[in-house]
Amino acid sequence: MHKVMYGIPSPQSHIYGKFRAPPNLRAMKFKKLSLCSITKGRRIMCDIKQIWIRLKRFRYRCGYGVHSPFAFNFIANVIYEKTLYYAYQELEKGKCAGRTEKERRSRRSRKVNRLLFRLVNWAQPLTVVDGGCSPMASDYLRAAKKATEYVALASVDTTGLLERRSIDFLYIDRPEDMAFMECLFEYGAGQAGDRLVIVIRNIYRSAATKTFWKQVTADERVGVTFDLYDVGILFFDRSKIKQHYVVSF
Fold first, then answer.
1. Could you give the C-alpha distances from 223 to 69, 166, 216, 217, in angstroms and in order?
2. Which site among 9, 53, 72, 110 is 20 to 30 Å from 63 CA-CA?
3. What's the pLDDT score for residue 48?
């Protein structure tokens, strides 16, 4: 019986075709394969979930059944707008700092971020308040209208930056910090003018965010609302009849 050396073939190994990797190397390979399998499994489950959501919302696509001229125009010409703005190329080349490789490659993230760009471009706000947690989303918000005053909020403690400011576009994305989201919404709704637009991301991330979304859409101060699953959009123009729209996005 010949001796088999780990990592180095023995003189007789070529006869039997035997070659064994060291035990720790085999364990590392197994662990790597296991992690890859888990990652692929999660990705597949995520894709299946997105397909299921699309099927459930199929009848809400392209503004079908929407009778309000304002709502139909907003759905058709803002939410579903297909214009490829020049800024998209610059933003998606990865030149802006702070973004992760996962963010840059995520088609869903890119789709939502492009919507943020179109919303700011459509609303033409004087002040954009960013209460989000993604540097990539922030890039899109700033790029849509460079002359707009941009205010970034990192936590509840920084909401003092909003004192005596009149805001007309508020972006909220902090699903792990509900106190921050509630505080920011209350500030915006408390001094809301007809031009104010509030965009809330990840409204279905957890039970807490779902409850929060139901509460804000039911708020008396809020007018027309749009539920895109990944994003919720609130308008405060009370000249329009309060109405809630579900959109397949």
1. 15, 19, 10, 8
2. 110
3. 64
Rounded CA-CA distance 153/106 in Å is 25
Which residue is listed with tokens 């020049």?
A: 86
- If we measure between CA atoms, which residue out of 201, 202, 238 comes closest to residue 219? 238
3-class DSSP state of 63: helix
Q: CA 227, CA 245: separation in Å to the nearest integer? A: 6
Residues 138/174, Cβ–Cβ less than 8 Å = no
Q: What domains are defined for the chain?
A: 1-56 (no CATH), 61-246 (3.40.50.150)
Q: How far apart are CA 34 and CA 42, in angstroms?
A: 12
| Residue 94 pLDDT > 80 | no
Q: How many helices (H) and strands (E) does the chain have?
A: 9, 7
pLDDT higher at 208 or 43: 208
Q: 121 falls in which pLDDT band (50, 70, 90)?
A: very high
Above 90 in pLDDT, residue 211?
yes
**Residue in the structure block whose two tokens are 């139909």:** 72
Give just the sign of the alpha carbon dihedral 202, 208, 210, 213: negative
State the pTM of this model.
0.74
